[in-house]
Amino acid sequence: MTKLYLIRHGKTEWNLESRYQGAHGDSPLLPASYAEIKQLGQFLRPIRFEHVFSSPIRRARLTAFELQKSIHQKIPFTLMSQLAEFDLGQMEGMLFDDVKRQFPKEFDAFRHHPDQYDPAQIHGETFAQLINRMGGAIKEISGANQGDVNVLIVSHGAALNAVINSLLGVPLAYLRDRGGLNNTSTTVLETRTGSEFKLLKWNDTSYLRKSVADPTDTI
Question: What is the pTM assigned to this prediction?
């Protein structure tokens, strides 16, 4: 049985500012994020991993590199462009409040009604396009890592949320019903076939030594 450990990257400056990053925007990891990635690495250390796959975007790539070091295992490492975040077009780099004012329909649909999201005006990527490219990559990874193996996949909050729920058979209209994913969180899927998936764990952050939850941790 293949287990996929799907990790959202560490928290960044733009996450803290409530600013969209997307596939082309990016910002540095916060200093505290490096400590949290080490905490995740310590949590995952007892598990033997077959491979690490990561989005090539810097915030995810650095999270994956730091995580690999913290796990203390020599693991093959592959960057996959298909694991990148949503292309959010003109929303990238904008504060959430500014997007809500300038693109109210797109803002509301992206967050609450994925089946109604039309990014044509902002020149972004649709949910169907994201699910097709990223879901295909995860199925490819699963198919190439069959047996009793564990695989790490480091990617992005909005993209992971959409693709995980899609792989679980959730209809487009209800992709957001399970809630958001936190920075440095772990979600675990299990598959025997590489095409059908079972959820074992959702948005686990129990290993992070945080005293207070911050709404900017979640998307």
Answer: 0.96
Largest CA distance in the chain: 49
The architecture CATH gives domain 2-209? 3-Layer(aba) Sandwich (3.40)
Q: pLDDT of the chain along its 219 residues, tens only? A: 999 999 999 999 999 999 999 999 999 999 999 999 999 999 999 999 999 999 999 999 999 999 999 999 999 999 999 999 999 999 999 999 999 999 999 999 999 999 999 999 999 999 999 999 999 999 999 999 999 999 999 999 999 999 999 999 999 999 999 999 999 999 999 999 888 999 999 999 999 997 667 888 888
| CA-based radius of gyration for the chain | 16
Domain ranges within the chain, ordered by starting residue? 2-209
Whose structure tokens read 């299990």?
Answer: 190
